[in-house]
Amino acid sequence: MNPLRRRRLLLLLLLVVAAAIATTLVVMALQRNVAYLYTPVEVLRGETGA
Predict the structure, then answer these.
(1) Predicted structure pTM score
(2) Euclidean distance between CA atoms 4 and 19, whole angstroms
(3) Which sign, positive or negative, has the C-alpha torsion 24, 33, 37, 31?
(4) What band does 3 get if pLDDT is binned at 50, 70 and 90?
């Protein structure tokens, strides 16, 4: 494999892995704070499920 092509492939692979890690961290953070995604009306009505 051409060294330039190999370097580009490695860079692309690293970018995909970094994006996957960032996405995973964001999803985990949102799962912990899911209570903030309820509207005030839902909380007052008791529709939060908690």
Answers:
(1) 0.60
(2) 23
(3) positive
(4) very high
Task: For residue range 4-22, list pLDDT tens digits in order.
Answer: 999 999 999 999 999 999 9
The span from the CA of 47 to the CA of 41, in Å, is: 9
**3-class secondary structure per residue, 1-50:** CCHHHHHHHHHHHHHHHHHHHHHHHHHHHHHHCHHHHCCHHHHHHCCCCC
Question: In the numeric block, which tokens belong to residue 12?
Answer: 């692309």
Whether 50 contacts 35, CB under 8 Å:
yes
Q: Residue 10 corresponds to which tokens in the numbers above?
A: 């490695």
